[in-house]
Amino acid sequence: MLTKKEIVEALSMCQDPELGSNIVDIGLIQGILINPDNSVKVTLTMTSAMCPVTSIILADVQLRIEALPGISKAEVDLVWDPMWTPEMMSDELKYRS
Fold first, then answer.
1. For the chain, how many structural domains are there in total?
2. Each residue's pLDDT tens digit, 74-95
3. Chain center to CA of 58
4. How far apart are CA 76 and CA 11, in angstroms?
5. List of residues 6+ apart from 55 with CB closer than 8 A
6. What is residue 97's predicted lDDT score, i.e. its pLDDT?
């Protein structure tokens, strides 16, 4: 059975090319749902509705989830509620010099 930790590890390999950090630390991941049939739904947001790399990030998330062993289906859902704020970033990113 797949775990959220394994999914988060895969998602942490997805980089925002503009910010140079991974989407987990940026705080873009809003939710991960693993169903009994090993289908996965990842809900995420972007830092802005005008983000020029949205399609790149969404495709990368889809590919990385689908590459995990045992995945029957991967769904990526882009949401705007709640809106992203800098408080969603990991502490490491918030306080990076």
1. 1
2. 999 999 999 999 999 999 888 8
3. 8
4. 12
5. none
6. 47
The dihedral formed by the CA atoms of 43, 65, 92 and 19, expressed in degrees to the nearest 10: -80
| pTM for this model (two decimals) | 0.91
Alpha-carbon distance of 34 to 14, in angstroms, equals: 19
Tell me the residue range of the domain where 75 lies.
4-83
40 in a structural domain: yes
DSSP string, 64-97: HHHTSTT-SEEEEEE--SSPP-GGGS-HHHHT--
Preceding omega of 82 cis (within 30 degrees of 0) = yes
CA 74 from chain centre, in angstroms, equals: 12
Establish if 21 belongs to a structural domain.
Answer: yes
We report the CATH number of the domain holding residue 24 as 3.30.300.130
